[in-house]
Amino acid sequence: MDYQWLLDNTPDGISIVRSGETLFINSQMAEILGESIEEIMSRSNFDHIHPDSLELVKSRTESRLRGEQPPNKYEIKIIRGDSAIRYIETNTSVIDWEGSPAILTINRDVTELRAHEAKLEALLGHAAAMSQAETMEEIANITYDTVNQTIGFNRLSIGLVIGDTLVHEYRWGINSDRAFIMPLDGPGITVKVVNEKKSQRIGNVLEFSDYVDGTKDTITRSELAVPAIIEGKVVAVLNIESPIIDTFDDTDQKLLEILAEQVSSAMYRIESQKQQRQLSERFNAFVDSASESFVLFDSDLKLIYVNRIGTERLRAYADEIIGASLRDLTPKRTPDRYESYLEVLETGESQSFDAYYHSSGIAHLRISAYKVGDGLGIIATDLTQLSEEQETSRKLDRELAEERFKTNQLIELNRLKTNFMNPATHEIKTPITSIRGYSEIIQGKMARGEMEEIDGYFEAVIRNIDRLEHLSNDLLDMQRIESGRMTVNKARVPVSMILDLLRLEMTPILDIKEQTLEINMPSTKTIIECDELRILQVLINLVQNSSNYTDYGTTITITVSELEDALKFLVMDTGIGISDIDMPKLFTPFPDIRVTNARHGSGLGLSICKGIVDLHGGTIWAESEGFGMGTTFVFILPR
Q: For the purposes of burial, counting CB atoms within 10 Å of the CB of 73, is it exposed (0-12), middle (13-18) or buried (19 or more)?
């Protein structure tokens, strides 16, 4: 067989080296190194290795020649003949070369792949930052940093559509004394973007008849502008400029369009939250003006709201009694009333009864209790001085008050829906953004016949599809739990069998971070009555959570202990821990927990864990001594 032909026609760079001497290289390797074969063969093979990678290459080479088995495949940096730095994925093995051992290296230039990955990471970072931004100024500054990082241009403006004008409020690298205002019925590239609702990429602005120069002492020759759209309406325009003709390409346009989508999502979220706050403020003002007492308790029957007249009747300031329990606020002489409140909460059927208080005479109150969401609402109406006609009028007032409470319930449900949908939408859009980005790169490379790196891109697409599937399953489980449609099929099973399945499931995942799973239990014969698959799901979620927030090379420990009529499970890690402020936010979907240098999770996994444990009649909680002190998740299941 003609091996020389194979070596010269493979897409990979191949070299054979021994003790710093280059014994053979093919033409592809010479092209990667940017020198002729003769120049490369005349020097040490270490001359092209970047200082950051030199020690690694030497140690791996010496180790392999000694007969040891270090990893075959790793990534290094090299310095080309033209001084450019490239990233190389190298695969090494020992061969016999003319009677002596030598190192065969198969090399692939992955510099472009790493650059694309860096851009996609920047896009994901932009999406995460957008979900936390609270003002338009934050959105603008975050977007400018990302444009500079991904596209490499620092001349950016963001125009906001205000009435019949486009106001370029935010500008970087463009000289101007003030915001540039453009009427939407006039000329201009960005105005055209608003009116046509599509991107404009102009190779030479001097050939564009409607071009308007809004700069001062700044030369512009090419321009790229894309719309940010909410509900079919352009609300902003992202615009980048360059002093060079034909600067921007398809990739730049696609990247800026993705950023514009993320900007529009953030603007929509901020505006929705603003409207919600205004609606809540108007409602509170309305309720405070009522003559009835309005009192609202959460699912644990802790006071969360009381209006002005309510505080007067309770003879306390609102901030003094917020958080007080309904039992403590119910008069001790009327224990049956507290039981009635519990019945309303359990059945959802409202109840009304009269109450009499001695306060400067006898006060006659009509008390009505309603289930509001998963909590309890109480309206107290003073009937002391009412005549029959007034009673009729008050009856209408009570009906009106009931409608107010229903309105409040709808507002609360809408707020909960908004708080759920905004982060859920962000969590879903993140993998979709990655899939689309990688797919467009694949499409471009296939069109150009550049097939050598396509496998890596397909792997990235598959990873994000798996992530999207996992998120969808979590959302469905959360919906089943909240709607009461999740069921458990209990059977008596050995705990050891569940833990063996857990180890089998988690070992490949933990191996990625070189983590180990240690399991301690009193006896392999321990039996528990449970839904085996659901409890396995709880353990997988807890171990995965510990892995995500724990360093490489650490141990995650599971300990099972027997109580009198229950089993106690502990999942312990040595990770970043949980602060006292964040501890109450656990086990709720999309908690606002921010940890520096750690990935932002959806919180669905822990919410599902609580739902499953609750269905088994158990309890679950977390313990941590604070940041950097690790976390222990504990749940107890009846046997």
A: exposed
